[in-house]
Amino acid sequence: MEYRKKIQHSVAYIQEKLGKVQADTVAFVTGTGLGGLTDAIENPILLPYEEIDEFPVSTVKSHVGQLISGTIDGVPVLALQGRFHLYEGFTAQEATHNIRVLGELGVKKLILTNAVGALNPSFETGSPMIIEDHINMTGHTPLRGENVDSWGERFPDMCVVYDPALRKLAVNKALELGIRLERGVFMQIMGPNMETPAETRMYRRLGADAIGMSTCMEAIAAHHMGIRILGISCLTNKNLPDCMKEASLDTVIAQAEKSSATMTNLIRAILKEIPQTAE
Question: In what residue span(s) does the Nucleoside phosphorylase domain sit (predicted)?
Answer without folding.
Answer: 25-272
